[in-house]
Amino acid sequence: MLIVYxxxxxxxxxxxxxxxxxxxxxxxxxLGLFIWMSWLGVAYVxxxxxxxxxxxxxxxxxxxxxxxxxxLEWVSWLLLAGLVVVFSLEVTQNxxxxxxVISGTPIPQYLLYASIPVGFSLILLRVVQQMVTVTLRxxxxxxxxxxxxxxxxx
Length: 154
Description:
Helices cover about 70% and strands about 0% of the residues. It is mainly alpha-helical. The longest helix has about 35 residues, at about 65-100.
């Protein structure tokens, strides 16, 4: 996606510079690719455990207290991502019903907006995966410390 995103921008810059024309669809496509990359990236970062956390706050907490902090984080993610999925599905459905396409292309416009429910569904999946992994580690008596860096587990 990043290669296509960069290529579209480069071609559009060259066209504007040398011909004073531009690709009518480039702005919508670049915006859509950026949104897709963003939400897929967020899901990946959560899966890797590298999202920003408050590691310094829980640095000296017991494993039980750290586990409670994890649960607070998970519940927050599930509520937020769940609400976004529910409401973004409605918006995406409206675009599907309208049958609009990206200007100058045969690409349905709803594909741009589908990135939000897809990305947040992946976030929900990653949070549930993390819940299972950390819970199994906690029950086995293994280290579950959040860590003091900007993300990731120790």
